[in-house]
Amino acid sequence: MQKTQSGAIVSVVGLVIMATLFLHELRYYLTTYTVHQMAVDLKRGETLPIHINMTFPSLPCDVLSVDAIDMSGKHEVDLDTNIWKLRLNSDGYIIGTEYLSDLVEKEHTAHTHGDDKDHGHHEESDEKTHLHGFDQDAENMIKKVKQALFSGEGCRVYGVLDVQRVAGNFHISVHGLNIFVAQMIFEGATHVNVSHIIHDLSFGPKYPGLHNPLDGTVRILRGASGTFKYYIKIVPTEYKYISKEVLPTNQFSVTEYFSPMNEYDRTWPAVYFLYDLSPITVTIKEERRSFLHFITRLCAVLGGTFALTGMLDRWMYRLLEMLTKPNTRSGFR
Fold first, then answer.
1. Which of 38-42, 58-62, 91-95, 193-197 has the lowest mean pLDDT?
2. Nearest-angstrom CA–CA distance, 67 and 80
3. Where do transmembrane segments lie in this chain (predicted)?
4. Is beta strand 280-287 parallel, antiparallel or unpaired with respect to 226-240?
5. Where in the chain are the domains?
């Protein structure tokens, strides 16, 4: 076999191509892919974790409360368990931290703003206070909140709620305030600005490839206030890693609705998250391709490249031979 410069070039190029394809096939073999399976959800008696991380740039922490209610009738007002409140200045920097551990629970019978059953023993005194003036604590709170509103103070609410695994809702609002105190602070429901930023809202730990549709949501009100409602459909999910570790979590879809306020509404603005659970659970499994599949693809790719470079080498040799023969003949003359 005659050695030529063109053959050497073709051989080097072929080796580079084969090395590149080999690395590509090796990476393809080592990476995992996911398989989705669906089945009826058989889980019972478990809790549903709700991870919240939201900012309210126009409401101080003193007036915000987190309430939750589910279809079983369990009603939790002004939730503070595992909930943190960070006071923010007008520039969004943290100026104070608040963590409360007491939880107020009650069975849901009828819940209206400022007329809750758990405040029933204060109802008469609240009416007298409204008629004859607020007590010292209420007056101090009103002054404090008005000063915070004037300085543009906001609040960041984050933490974890553990609720029963049934349909329900939770909302963040000023519903924890006495109605007369709220009226003195805001001078009407239309002045309650529930602008918010959702940094993170999830129903369990995150797995590779999970996208929560509400993350990064920004809703800033410039005019009249209103109530935001997010209708969430939760899909129970299990993620099985290649190491056989199982991660139970949830993914969800969401639909948004905004209801503007007017001066005749008797409700107060809030941000509602109304969730329901799907009866179908999704199992996502990580799997790796078989070694025989990797060997088969590797042989096909490398063999094809080797054959192609051999053909190119022969074609280039013949072409150069045809181009050099006339010159050789003319030299003999």
1. 91-95
2. 9
3. 6-23
4. parallel
5. 5-32+297-332, 46-287
